[in-house]
Amino acid sequence: MVQPYLNLREKTAARDRSLREKVMSLEAAASLVGDGNHVALGGCTLSRTPMAMIRTLIREKKKNLKISRSIVSTEGDLLYVSGVSQHIMTSWFSQGIVWGISKVMRHYTETKQARFEEWSHMSIGLRFRAGAMGIPFMPTRSMLGSGVAGQLPDVEELDCPYTGERLMLLPALNPDVALIHVQRCDAYGNAQIDGLQFMDADIAMAANRVILTTERIVSNDQIRRAPDQTKIPFFTVDAVIEVPYGSAPHECYGMYEPFFVHLDQYAELIRKDPVIGATEYLERYYYGPESWSEYLGLLGISNMLDATRRGRSIYDD
Amino acid sequence: MIERSGYTASELLAVMSARLLMDGQCVFAGVGIPLLAATLAQRLHGPGLTILFEGGVLGPFVVPGELPPSTNEQRCTKRANMLLSITDVLLLLQRGYVDVGFMGGAQIDQYGNLNSSFIGDPDAPAIRLPGTGGGNDISSLTQMIVAMKHEKRRFVEKVDFVTSPGYLEGTTHRRDSGLVSGGMYRVVTDLAILAFDGVTKRMKVETLHPGVTAEQVRDNTGFDIWIDPEAKTTEPPSANELAVLNELDPDRLYTA
Protein backbone atom coordinates (compact mmCIF):
# COMPACT_ATOMS: atom_id res chain seq x y z
CA MET A 1 0.00 0.00 0.00
CA VAL A 2 2.56 2.57 1.12
CA GLN A 3 5.95 2.21 -0.49
CA PRO A 4 9.14 2.52 1.56
CA TYR A 5 10.46 6.09 1.52
CA LEU A 6 13.74 5.22 -0.19
CA ASN A 7 11.88 3.57 -3.08
CA LEU A 8 9.98 6.77 -3.62
CA ARG A 9 13.18 8.83 -3.46
CA GLU A 10 14.95 6.48 -5.88
CA LYS A 11 12.15 6.82 -8.43
CA THR A 12 12.31 10.60 -8.15
CA ALA A 13 16.11 10.65 -8.35
CA ALA A 14 15.96 8.55 -11.52
CA ARG A 15 13.77 11.08 -13.33
CA ASP A 16 15.27 13.68 -15.66
CA ARG A 17 14.34 16.83 -13.74
CA SER A 18 16.18 19.24 -16.01
CA LEU A 19 14.52 22.25 -17.65
CA ARG A 20 13.78 20.56 -20.98
CA GLU A 21 11.04 20.59 -23.59
CA LYS A 22 8.49 17.78 -23.26
CA VAL A 23 5.97 18.56 -25.98
CA MET A 24 4.65 15.40 -27.63
CA SER A 25 1.51 13.78 -29.08
CA LEU A 26 -1.26 12.15 -27.09
CA GLU A 27 -0.21 8.77 -28.50
CA ALA A 28 3.43 9.25 -27.47
CA ALA A 29 2.34 10.28 -23.97
CA ALA A 30 0.19 7.15 -23.70
CA SER A 31 3.38 5.09 -23.72
CA LEU A 32 4.11 6.53 -20.26
CA VAL A 33 1.11 4.61 -18.94
CA GLY A 34 1.71 0.92 -18.40
CA ASP A 35 -0.92 -1.79 -17.98
CA GLY A 36 -1.72 -2.24 -14.30
CA ASN A 37 -0.56 1.28 -13.38
CA HIS A 38 -2.23 3.40 -10.74
CA VAL A 39 -3.44 6.43 -12.67
CA ALA A 40 -4.68 9.53 -10.84
CA LEU A 41 -6.96 11.94 -12.67
CA GLY A 42 -6.96 15.68 -12.04
CA GLY A 43 -9.99 17.95 -11.96
CA CYS A 44 -13.27 17.01 -10.30
CA THR A 45 -16.65 15.78 -11.56
CA LEU A 46 -17.31 17.77 -14.75
CA SER A 47 -14.33 20.08 -14.39
CA ARG A 48 -10.91 19.95 -16.06
CA THR A 49 -11.27 16.22 -16.66
CA PRO A 50 -8.22 15.09 -18.70
CA MET A 51 -10.62 13.75 -21.32
CA ALA A 52 -8.32 13.82 -24.36
CA MET A 53 -5.75 11.68 -22.54
CA ILE A 54 -8.41 9.35 -21.14
CA ARG A 55 -9.81 8.93 -24.66
CA THR A 56 -6.30 8.09 -25.91
CA LEU A 57 -5.77 5.44 -23.20
CA ILE A 58 -9.12 3.89 -24.13
CA ARG A 59 -8.24 3.92 -27.84
CA GLU A 60 -4.89 2.31 -27.03
CA LYS A 61 -6.71 -0.42 -25.06
CA LYS A 62 -4.74 -0.07 -21.84
CA LYS A 63 -5.50 -2.79 -19.29
CA ASN A 64 -6.12 -3.08 -15.56
CA LEU A 65 -5.54 0.54 -14.69
CA LYS A 66 -6.39 1.46 -11.11
CA ILE A 67 -7.96 4.88 -11.28
CA SER A 68 -8.16 7.46 -8.50
CA ARG A 69 -9.97 10.79 -8.63
CA SER A 70 -11.68 13.15 -6.20
CA ILE A 71 -15.08 12.67 -7.87
CA VAL A 72 -15.75 10.57 -10.96
CA SER A 73 -18.33 11.46 -13.63
CA THR A 74 -18.92 10.15 -17.17
CA GLU A 75 -15.24 9.29 -17.67
CA GLY A 76 -15.62 6.58 -15.02
CA ASP A 77 -18.43 4.96 -17.02
CA LEU A 78 -16.25 4.92 -20.12
CA LEU A 79 -13.23 3.51 -18.30
CA TYR A 80 -15.36 0.61 -17.02
CA VAL A 81 -17.18 -0.13 -20.30
CA SER A 82 -14.02 0.06 -22.42
CA GLY A 83 -12.36 -2.52 -20.16
CA VAL A 84 -9.48 -0.17 -19.34
CA SER A 85 -10.23 -0.19 -15.61
CA GLN A 86 -12.07 -2.50 -13.25
CA HIS A 87 -11.10 -0.55 -10.15
CA ILE A 88 -11.93 3.09 -9.47
CA MET A 89 -11.16 4.78 -6.18
CA THR A 90 -13.21 7.91 -5.55
CA SER A 91 -15.63 9.61 -3.15
CA TRP A 92 -18.59 9.99 -5.51
CA PHE A 93 -19.34 8.30 -8.80
CA SER A 94 -22.13 9.41 -11.14
CA GLN A 95 -22.54 11.81 -14.05
CA GLY A 96 -23.89 14.62 -11.84
CA ILE A 97 -26.83 15.07 -9.50
CA VAL A 98 -29.12 16.44 -12.22
CA TRP A 99 -28.78 13.21 -14.24
CA GLY A 100 -29.27 10.78 -11.33
CA ILE A 101 -27.23 7.71 -10.39
CA SER A 102 -24.88 6.33 -13.05
CA LYS A 103 -26.49 3.20 -14.49
CA VAL A 104 -23.10 2.10 -15.79
CA MET A 105 -21.52 2.34 -12.33
CA ARG A 106 -24.50 0.47 -10.90
CA HIS A 107 -24.33 -2.29 -13.50
CA TYR A 108 -20.60 -2.91 -13.18
CA THR A 109 -20.42 -2.72 -9.39
CA GLU A 110 -23.65 -4.57 -8.61
CA THR A 111 -22.65 -7.46 -10.90
CA LYS A 112 -19.15 -7.31 -9.38
CA GLN A 113 -17.48 -6.84 -12.75
CA ALA A 114 -15.74 -3.78 -11.38
CA ARG A 115 -14.93 -2.18 -8.07
CA PHE A 116 -15.81 1.30 -6.80
CA GLU A 117 -13.57 1.81 -3.78
CA GLU A 118 -15.19 4.56 -1.74
CA TRP A 119 -13.22 7.00 0.41
CA SER A 120 -14.38 10.33 1.79
CA HIS A 121 -13.55 13.33 -0.36
CA MET A 122 -11.09 14.83 2.12
CA SER A 123 -9.47 11.44 2.74
CA ILE A 124 -8.57 11.14 -0.93
CA GLY A 125 -7.17 14.66 -0.84
CA LEU A 126 -5.14 13.94 2.28
CA ARG A 127 -3.81 10.71 0.75
CA PHE A 128 -2.52 12.67 -2.25
CA ARG A 129 -1.16 15.33 0.10
CA ALA A 130 0.73 12.77 2.19
CA GLY A 131 2.12 11.40 -1.07
CA ALA A 132 3.13 14.92 -2.11
CA MET A 133 4.78 15.49 1.28
CA GLY A 134 6.84 12.31 1.19
CA ILE A 135 5.34 10.98 4.40
CA PRO A 136 3.70 7.55 4.80
CA PHE A 137 0.32 8.65 6.18
CA MET A 138 -1.81 11.58 7.23
CA PRO A 139 -3.87 11.68 10.41
CA THR A 140 -7.43 13.00 10.23
CA ARG A 141 -10.49 13.35 12.43
CA SER A 142 -12.80 12.36 9.59
CA MET A 143 -14.20 8.91 8.67
CA LEU A 144 -14.06 7.65 12.29
CA GLY A 145 -16.93 5.37 13.24
CA SER A 146 -18.39 5.18 9.73
CA GLY A 147 -19.14 2.31 7.39
CA VAL A 148 -16.92 3.96 4.78
CA ALA A 149 -13.82 3.40 6.91
CA GLY A 150 -15.11 -0.07 7.83
CA GLN A 151 -14.93 -1.15 4.19
CA LEU A 152 -11.35 -0.01 3.73
CA PRO A 153 -8.62 -2.49 4.68
CA ASP A 154 -5.88 0.13 4.48
CA VAL A 155 -6.93 2.61 7.15
CA GLU A 156 -5.76 2.43 10.73
CA GLU A 157 -6.81 4.17 13.91
CA LEU A 158 -4.33 5.61 16.37
CA ASP A 159 -4.57 7.25 19.77
CA CYS A 160 -2.63 10.49 19.44
CA PRO A 161 0.66 10.28 21.39
CA TYR A 162 0.25 13.95 22.46
CA THR A 163 -3.44 14.25 23.37
CA GLY A 164 -4.74 10.69 23.54
CA GLU A 165 -7.45 11.62 21.01
CA ARG A 166 -8.59 9.07 18.44
CA LEU A 167 -7.29 9.67 14.92
CA MET A 168 -7.80 7.99 11.56
CA LEU A 169 -4.61 7.33 9.61
CA LEU A 170 -4.76 7.55 5.83
CA PRO A 171 -2.03 5.87 3.79
CA ALA A 172 -0.07 8.08 1.38
CA LEU A 173 -0.94 7.74 -2.29
CA ASN A 174 1.86 8.06 -4.84
CA PRO A 175 0.26 7.24 -8.21
CA ASP A 176 2.39 5.79 -10.99
CA VAL A 177 1.01 8.38 -13.38
CA ALA A 178 -1.14 11.50 -13.08
CA LEU A 179 -3.21 12.91 -15.94
CA ILE A 180 -3.92 16.62 -15.49
CA HIS A 181 -5.54 19.16 -17.79
CA VAL A 182 -4.79 22.88 -17.36
CA GLN A 183 -5.54 26.18 -19.06
CA ARG A 184 -1.90 26.87 -19.97
CA CYS A 185 1.65 25.72 -19.47
CA ASP A 186 5.00 26.13 -21.14
CA ALA A 187 6.94 23.50 -23.08
CA TYR A 188 8.75 22.50 -19.88
CA GLY A 189 5.52 21.80 -18.00
CA ASN A 190 5.19 24.84 -15.73
CA ALA A 191 1.41 24.80 -15.40
CA GLN A 192 -0.91 27.65 -14.52
CA ILE A 193 -4.41 26.78 -13.37
CA ASP A 194 -7.22 29.34 -13.34
CA GLY A 195 -10.14 29.11 -10.95
CA LEU A 196 -10.90 25.88 -9.14
CA GLN A 197 -7.71 24.04 -8.22
CA PHE A 198 -9.19 20.74 -6.98
CA MET A 199 -6.42 18.34 -5.86
CA ASP A 200 -4.19 18.85 -8.89
CA ALA A 201 -1.10 20.39 -7.30
CA ASP A 202 -0.92 17.62 -4.67
CA ILE A 203 -1.53 14.94 -7.32
CA ALA A 204 1.29 16.27 -9.49
CA MET A 205 3.71 16.34 -6.53
CA ALA A 206 2.66 12.87 -5.38
CA ALA A 207 2.84 11.09 -8.74
CA ASN A 208 5.88 9.38 -10.19
CA ARG A 209 5.02 10.61 -13.70
CA VAL A 210 2.77 13.45 -14.86
CA ILE A 211 1.11 13.83 -18.25
CA LEU A 212 -0.09 17.37 -18.72
CA THR A 213 -2.62 18.32 -21.37
CA THR A 214 -3.18 22.02 -21.85
CA GLU A 215 -5.53 24.35 -23.67
CA ARG A 216 -2.51 26.43 -24.76
CA ILE A 217 1.25 26.14 -24.67
CA VAL A 218 2.69 29.54 -23.77
CA SER A 219 6.29 30.74 -23.67
CA ASN A 220 8.47 30.27 -20.62
CA ASP A 221 8.82 34.09 -20.61
CA GLN A 222 5.08 34.39 -20.13
CA ILE A 223 5.19 31.95 -17.21
CA ARG A 224 8.01 33.94 -15.63
CA ARG A 225 5.96 37.15 -15.81
CA ALA A 226 3.44 35.68 -13.34
CA PRO A 227 5.20 32.87 -11.47
CA ASP A 228 2.69 33.15 -8.61
CA GLN A 229 0.13 31.66 -11.01
CA THR A 230 2.23 28.52 -11.57
CA LYS A 231 0.64 25.71 -9.59
CA ILE A 232 2.59 22.71 -10.94
CA PRO A 233 6.38 22.94 -11.29
CA PHE A 234 8.01 21.72 -14.50
CA PHE A 235 10.19 19.04 -12.89
CA THR A 236 7.16 16.98 -11.85
CA VAL A 237 6.00 16.86 -15.48
CA ASP A 238 7.02 14.27 -18.08
CA ALA A 239 4.83 15.11 -21.07
CA VAL A 240 3.12 18.23 -22.37
CA ILE A 241 0.40 18.01 -25.02
CA GLU A 242 -1.47 20.99 -26.41
CA VAL A 243 -5.12 19.94 -26.72
CA PRO A 244 -7.66 22.73 -27.19
CA TYR A 245 -10.97 21.78 -25.59
CA GLY A 246 -9.10 18.92 -23.95
CA SER A 247 -11.82 18.45 -21.28
CA ALA A 248 -14.80 18.47 -23.62
CA PRO A 249 -17.64 17.64 -23.03
CA HIS A 250 -16.72 18.61 -19.47
CA GLU A 251 -15.68 22.16 -18.53
CA CYS A 252 -12.43 24.08 -18.29
CA TYR A 253 -12.71 27.09 -15.99
CA GLY A 254 -13.03 30.42 -17.80
CA MET A 255 -12.84 28.79 -21.23
CA TYR A 256 -15.90 26.56 -21.63
CA GLU A 257 -18.64 25.17 -19.43
CA PRO A 258 -19.97 21.59 -19.76
CA PHE A 259 -21.49 20.74 -23.15
CA PHE A 260 -24.93 20.24 -21.61
CA VAL A 261 -26.77 19.17 -24.77
CA HIS A 262 -24.17 16.46 -25.38
CA LEU A 263 -24.23 15.35 -21.73
CA ASP A 264 -28.04 15.09 -21.88
CA GLN A 265 -27.68 12.94 -25.02
CA TYR A 266 -25.13 10.75 -23.25
CA ALA A 267 -27.46 10.35 -20.26
CA GLU A 268 -30.28 9.37 -22.60
CA LEU A 269 -28.11 6.69 -24.27
CA ILE A 270 -27.16 5.27 -20.87
CA ARG A 271 -30.74 5.42 -19.61
CA LYS A 272 -31.89 3.02 -22.36
CA ASP A 273 -29.19 0.45 -21.63
CA PRO A 274 -26.00 1.20 -19.72
CA VAL A 275 -23.69 -1.22 -21.53
CA ILE A 276 -25.14 -0.99 -25.04
CA GLY A 277 -25.53 2.78 -24.69
CA ALA A 278 -21.99 3.38 -23.48
CA THR A 279 -20.57 0.99 -26.09
CA GLU A 280 -22.45 2.88 -28.79
CA TYR A 281 -21.05 6.12 -27.39
CA LEU A 282 -17.49 4.73 -27.42
CA GLU A 283 -17.85 3.53 -31.03
CA ARG A 284 -19.19 6.84 -32.19
CA TYR A 285 -16.98 9.28 -30.27
CA TYR A 286 -13.90 7.33 -29.16
CA TYR A 287 -13.07 4.59 -31.63
CA GLY A 288 -14.51 6.20 -34.77
CA PRO A 289 -12.85 9.61 -35.00
CA GLU A 290 -9.09 9.29 -35.44
CA SER A 291 -8.08 12.66 -34.03
CA TRP A 292 -9.14 14.92 -31.18
CA SER A 293 -10.29 17.57 -33.68
CA GLU A 294 -12.42 15.01 -35.49
CA TYR A 295 -13.97 14.14 -32.10
CA LEU A 296 -14.63 17.82 -31.41
CA GLY A 297 -16.23 18.05 -34.85
CA LEU A 298 -18.73 15.39 -33.78
CA LEU A 299 -19.55 17.31 -30.60
CA GLY A 300 -20.59 20.06 -33.00
CA ILE A 301 -19.80 23.70 -33.51
CA SER A 302 -23.02 24.99 -31.95
CA ASN A 303 -22.46 22.98 -28.76
CA MET A 304 -18.90 24.21 -28.65
CA LEU A 305 -19.82 27.85 -29.12
CA ASP A 306 -22.57 27.61 -26.51
CA ALA A 307 -20.17 26.02 -23.98
CA THR A 308 -17.51 28.63 -24.80
CA ARG A 309 -19.85 31.60 -24.44
CA ARG A 310 -20.96 30.31 -21.03
CA GLY A 311 -17.40 29.47 -20.03
CA ARG A 312 -16.02 32.92 -20.77
CA SER A 313 -18.93 34.58 -18.96
CA ILE A 314 -17.41 33.76 -15.58
CA TYR A 315 -15.20 36.81 -16.03
CA ASP A 316 -18.19 39.11 -16.76
CA ASP A 317 -19.24 41.40 -13.94
CA MET B 1 -50.73 12.37 0.38
CA ILE B 2 -50.43 15.76 1.97
CA GLU B 3 -52.47 18.53 0.36
CA ARG B 4 -50.39 21.62 -0.28
CA SER B 5 -51.46 24.75 -2.02
CA GLY B 6 -49.08 27.00 -3.87
CA TYR B 7 -45.82 25.13 -3.37
CA THR B 8 -44.17 21.77 -4.02
CA ALA B 9 -42.48 19.48 -1.48
CA SER B 10 -39.04 20.54 -2.75
CA GLU B 11 -39.91 24.21 -2.49
CA LEU B 12 -41.13 23.66 1.05
CA LEU B 13 -37.85 21.90 1.90
CA ALA B 14 -35.78 24.73 0.44
CA VAL B 15 -37.70 27.47 2.25
CA MET B 16 -37.79 25.71 5.64
CA SER B 17 -34.06 24.92 5.40
CA ALA B 18 -33.18 28.48 4.42
CA ARG B 19 -34.91 29.74 7.57
CA LEU B 20 -32.55 27.69 9.74
CA LEU B 21 -29.48 29.46 8.38
CA MET B 22 -28.51 32.63 10.23
CA ASP B 23 -26.86 35.73 8.86
CA GLY B 24 -23.17 35.69 9.71
CA GLN B 25 -22.82 31.91 9.81
CA CYS B 26 -20.42 29.85 7.72
CA VAL B 27 -22.34 27.04 6.04
CA PHE B 28 -20.78 24.17 4.11
CA ALA B 29 -23.42 23.25 1.52
CA GLY B 30 -23.84 20.28 -0.76
CA VAL B 31 -25.40 20.40 -4.22
CA GLY B 32 -29.17 20.41 -4.76
CA ILE B 33 -31.57 21.68 -2.09
CA PRO B 34 -28.72 22.66 0.32
CA LEU B 35 -27.04 24.90 -2.28
CA LEU B 36 -30.41 26.35 -3.22
CA ALA B 37 -31.53 26.92 0.39
CA ALA B 38 -28.23 28.54 1.36
CA THR B 39 -28.41 30.83 -1.68
CA LEU B 40 -32.04 31.60 -0.82
CA ALA B 41 -31.08 32.46 2.77
CA GLN B 42 -28.43 34.90 1.48
CA ARG B 43 -31.09 36.73 -0.50
CA LEU B 44 -33.84 36.66 2.12
CA HIS B 45 -32.24 37.40 5.47
CA GLY B 46 -28.56 36.52 5.35
CA PRO B 47 -26.46 38.76 3.08
CA GLY B 48 -23.58 37.97 5.43
CA LEU B 49 -24.05 34.21 5.21
CA THR B 50 -20.79 32.64 4.01
CA ILE B 51 -21.26 29.57 1.85
CA LEU B 52 -18.50 27.01 1.32
CA PHE B 53 -18.55 24.40 -1.44
CA GLU B 54 -16.38 21.29 -1.45
CA GLY B 55 -15.10 22.15 -4.94
CA GLY B 56 -12.91 24.71 -3.18
CA VAL B 57 -15.11 27.80 -2.95
CA LEU B 58 -15.39 30.24 -0.05
CA GLY B 59 -18.14 32.86 0.12
CA PRO B 60 -19.81 32.87 -3.34
CA PHE B 61 -23.14 34.33 -4.52
CA VAL B 62 -24.50 31.87 -7.08
CA VAL B 63 -26.27 33.64 -9.96
CA PRO B 64 -30.05 33.11 -10.24
CA GLY B 65 -30.94 30.74 -13.06
CA GLU B 66 -27.36 29.44 -13.31
CA LEU B 67 -27.38 26.64 -10.76
CA PRO B 68 -24.44 24.24 -11.16
CA PRO B 69 -24.72 20.47 -11.81
CA SER B 70 -22.37 19.86 -8.86
CA THR B 71 -20.41 22.05 -6.46
CA ASN B 72 -17.33 21.62 -8.66
CA GLU B 73 -18.09 23.83 -11.66
CA GLN B 74 -17.24 27.46 -12.30
CA ARG B 75 -20.85 28.52 -11.66
CA CYS B 76 -20.18 27.87 -7.97
CA THR B 77 -17.45 30.49 -7.85
CA LYS B 78 -19.41 33.61 -8.80
CA ARG B 79 -18.44 36.54 -6.55
CA ALA B 80 -16.51 34.22 -4.22
CA ASN B 81 -14.06 35.63 -1.70
CA MET B 82 -11.54 32.88 -2.25
CA LEU B 83 -10.90 29.73 -4.25
CA LEU B 84 -8.77 27.02 -2.68
CA SER B 85 -8.10 23.35 -3.20
CA ILE B 86 -10.66 20.70 -2.30
CA THR B 87 -8.47 19.40 0.50
CA ASP B 88 -7.94 22.86 1.97
CA VAL B 89 -11.60 23.86 1.91
CA LEU B 90 -12.52 20.59 3.64
CA LEU B 91 -9.78 21.12 6.20
CA LEU B 92 -11.57 24.32 7.27
CA LEU B 93 -14.18 21.96 8.74
CA GLN B 94 -11.56 20.10 10.71
CA ARG B 95 -10.02 23.35 11.93
CA GLY B 96 -13.46 24.47 13.18
CA TYR B 97 -14.29 27.49 11.01
CA VAL B 98 -17.63 26.10 9.80
CA ASP B 99 -20.82 26.61 11.85
CA VAL B 100 -23.06 24.23 10.00
CA GLY B 101 -22.88 21.59 7.28
CA PHE B 102 -25.90 21.17 5.11
CA MET B 103 -26.73 18.30 2.79
CA GLY B 104 -29.34 15.93 1.42
CA GLY B 105 -29.51 12.18 1.91
CA ALA B 106 -30.97 9.03 0.42
CA GLN B 107 -31.63 7.26 3.73
CA ILE B 108 -31.48 8.35 7.39
CA ASP B 109 -32.03 6.50 10.65
CA GLN B 110 -33.29 7.32 14.14
CA TYR B 111 -29.84 8.51 15.23
CA GLY B 112 -29.32 10.72 12.19
CA ASN B 113 -26.87 8.44 10.41
CA LEU B 114 -27.01 8.96 6.65
CA ASN B 115 -26.60 6.41 3.90
CA SER B 116 -25.66 7.43 0.38
CA SER B 117 -23.62 4.34 -0.49
CA PHE B 118 -25.64 1.11 -0.60
CA ILE B 119 -29.30 0.10 -0.50
CA GLY B 120 -29.40 -3.45 0.87
CA ASP B 121 -26.43 -5.53 1.90
CA PRO B 122 -23.22 -3.58 1.16
CA ASP B 123 -21.61 -6.82 -0.07
CA ALA B 124 -24.46 -7.53 -2.49
CA PRO B 125 -26.39 -4.28 -2.78
CA ALA B 126 -29.76 -3.89 -4.45
CA ILE B 127 -28.54 -0.43 -5.45
CA ARG B 128 -25.04 0.98 -5.43
CA LEU B 129 -25.50 4.67 -4.69
CA PRO B 130 -23.00 7.37 -5.76
CA GLY B 131 -21.20 7.52 -2.40
CA THR B 132 -20.18 10.02 0.23
CA GLY B 133 -18.47 12.80 -1.66
CA GLY B 134 -17.67 15.24 1.12
CA GLY B 135 -20.68 14.10 3.16
CA ASN B 136 -18.70 11.92 5.53
CA ASP B 137 -16.17 14.70 6.18
CA ILE B 138 -18.82 17.36 6.75
CA SER B 139 -20.91 15.22 9.10
CA SER B 140 -17.81 13.99 10.96
CA LEU B 141 -16.52 17.48 11.63
CA THR B 142 -19.39 19.93 12.10
CA GLN B 143 -22.97 20.41 13.19
CA MET B 144 -25.36 19.24 10.48
CA ILE B 145 -28.63 20.18 8.86
CA VAL B 146 -30.08 17.58 6.50
CA ALA B 147 -32.88 18.22 4.00
CA MET B 148 -34.76 15.27 2.57
CA LYS B 149 -38.18 14.02 1.54
CA HIS B 150 -40.09 12.35 4.36
CA GLU B 151 -40.81 8.81 3.20
CA LYS B 152 -40.96 5.55 5.12
CA ARG B 153 -38.31 3.93 2.90
CA ARG B 154 -35.94 6.84 3.59
CA PHE B 155 -36.58 7.15 7.36
CA VAL B 156 -35.50 3.76 8.65
CA GLU B 157 -34.71 2.38 12.08
CA LYS B 158 -31.16 1.50 11.06
CA VAL B 159 -29.46 2.54 7.83
CA ASP B 160 -28.09 -0.20 5.58
CA PHE B 161 -24.71 1.52 5.74
CA VAL B 162 -23.33 4.50 7.66
CA THR B 163 -21.90 6.76 4.97
CA SER B 164 -22.09 9.96 7.01
CA PRO B 165 -22.18 9.54 10.78
CA GLY B 166 -24.94 11.05 12.87
CA TYR B 167 -24.96 9.85 16.49
CA LEU B 168 -24.09 6.28 15.36
CA GLU B 169 -25.83 4.05 17.97
CA GLY B 170 -27.00 6.97 20.12
CA THR B 171 -26.14 8.36 23.58
CA THR B 172 -22.35 8.91 23.66
CA HIS B 173 -21.46 6.52 20.85
CA ARG B 174 -20.47 9.26 18.41
CA ARG B 175 -18.06 10.86 20.86
CA ASP B 176 -16.75 7.47 21.98
CA SER B 177 -15.86 6.68 18.37
CA GLY B 178 -13.54 9.67 18.28
CA LEU B 179 -15.95 12.12 16.68
CA VAL B 180 -15.65 14.70 19.42
CA SER B 181 -17.23 17.64 17.56
CA GLY B 182 -20.34 18.20 15.47
CA GLY B 183 -23.40 15.98 15.17
CA MET B 184 -26.90 16.20 13.76
CA TYR B 185 -28.67 19.46 14.53
CA ARG B 186 -31.87 19.41 12.44
CA VAL B 187 -33.48 17.33 9.73
CA VAL B 188 -35.82 19.30 7.50
CA THR B 189 -38.44 17.32 5.62
CA ASP B 190 -41.56 18.16 3.66
CA LEU B 191 -43.61 17.15 6.73
CA ALA B 192 -41.73 18.47 9.74
CA ILE B 193 -38.58 19.80 11.30
CA LEU B 194 -36.85 17.14 13.35
CA ALA B 195 -34.36 17.51 16.18
CA PHE B 196 -32.44 15.04 18.39
CA ASP B 197 -32.91 14.23 22.06
CA GLY B 198 -30.08 15.61 24.18
CA VAL B 199 -29.40 12.31 25.94
CA THR B 200 -30.59 9.40 23.80
CA LYS B 201 -29.76 11.25 20.54
CA ARG B 202 -32.91 9.82 18.99
CA MET B 203 -34.78 11.80 16.37
CA LYS B 204 -37.91 13.66 17.49
CA VAL B 205 -40.37 16.05 15.91
CA GLU B 206 -39.80 19.68 16.73
CA THR B 207 -42.42 21.36 14.54
CA LEU B 208 -44.98 20.18 12.00
CA HIS B 209 -45.46 21.88 8.67
CA PRO B 210 -48.83 23.48 7.85
CA GLY B 211 -51.59 20.93 7.35
CA VAL B 212 -49.46 18.01 8.57
CA THR B 213 -50.68 15.81 11.43
CA ALA B 214 -48.63 13.78 13.90
CA GLU B 215 -50.22 10.67 12.43
CA GLN B 216 -48.98 11.51 8.93
CA VAL B 217 -45.44 11.85 10.26
CA ARG B 218 -45.71 8.47 12.02
CA ASP B 219 -47.10 6.85 8.85
CA ASN B 220 -44.13 8.10 6.86
CA THR B 221 -41.44 7.20 9.37
CA GLY B 222 -39.97 3.71 9.57
CA PHE B 223 -39.33 3.84 13.32
CA ASP B 224 -41.10 4.97 16.46
CA ILE B 225 -40.64 8.72 16.53
CA TRP B 226 -41.45 10.92 19.50
CA ILE B 227 -43.79 13.78 18.70
CA ASP B 228 -44.41 16.47 21.28
CA PRO B 229 -48.20 16.76 21.62
CA GLU B 230 -47.58 20.51 21.95
CA ALA B 231 -45.47 20.63 18.76
CA LYS B 232 -46.02 23.94 17.02
CA THR B 233 -46.81 24.40 13.34
CA THR B 234 -44.25 26.07 11.10
CA GLU B 235 -45.24 29.19 9.19
CA PRO B 236 -46.08 28.35 5.59
CA PRO B 237 -43.72 29.61 2.86
CA SER B 238 -44.46 33.25 2.15
CA ALA B 239 -45.14 34.64 -1.31
CA ASN B 240 -41.83 36.46 -1.14
CA GLU B 241 -39.85 33.34 -0.18
CA LEU B 242 -41.40 31.40 -3.06
CA ALA B 243 -40.85 34.25 -5.51
CA VAL B 244 -37.15 34.52 -4.70
CA LEU B 245 -36.82 30.74 -4.86
CA ASN B 246 -38.47 30.68 -8.27
CA GLU B 247 -36.06 33.34 -9.47
CA LEU B 248 -33.10 31.23 -8.32
CA ASP B 249 -34.30 28.01 -9.92
CA PRO B 250 -36.62 28.95 -12.79
CA ASP B 251 -35.79 25.74 -14.69
CA ARG B 252 -36.74 23.56 -11.69
CA LEU B 253 -33.31 21.94 -11.72
CA TYR B 254 -33.42 21.26 -7.99
CA THR B 255 -37.08 21.88 -7.12
CA ALA B 256 -38.85 19.62 -9.63
Output the structural class of chain B. Answer: alpha/beta
Q: What is the number of independent domains of chain B?
A: 1
Main sheet properties of chain B: 10 strands, mixed
Question: What proportion of the residues of chain A form beta strands (DSSP E)?
Answer: 15-25%
Q: Which structural class is indicated by helix and strand composition of chain A?
A: alpha/beta
With strands numbered from the N-terminus, the spatial order across the biggest sheet of chain B is 4-3-2-1-5-10-12-13-14-15
The percent range for helix content of chain B is 10-25%
Short characterization:
The complex is a heterodimer of chains A (about 325) and B (about 260). Chain A has about 325 residues and is an alpha/beta fold.
Your description of this structure?
The complex is a heterodimer of chains A (317) and B (256). Chain A has 317 residues and is of the alpha/beta class. Chain A has helices spanning 5-13, 26-30, 51-59, 74-81, 103-110, 121-133, 147-150, 200-206, 220-225, 260-272, 274-287, 292-299, 301-312, and strands at 38-41, 66-68, 87-90, 115-118, 137-140, 156-159, 166-171, 177-185, 191-192, 210-217, 230-232, 239-242. In chain A, helix 6 crosses helix 8 and helix 10 crosses helix 11 (274-287). Chain B has a single domain, classed as Glutaconate Coenzyme A-transferase (3-Layer(aba) Sandwich). Helices cover 24% and strands 24% of the residues of chain B. Chain B contains seven helices and 15 strands. In chain B, helix 1 packs across helix 2 and helix 2 packs across helix 7. Chain B is globular, with a radius of gyration of 17 Å. The model of chain B has no long low-confidence stretch (mean pLDDT 95). At the A-B interface, helix 5, helix 6, strand 7 and helix 8 of A face helix 3, strand 9 and helix 4 of B.
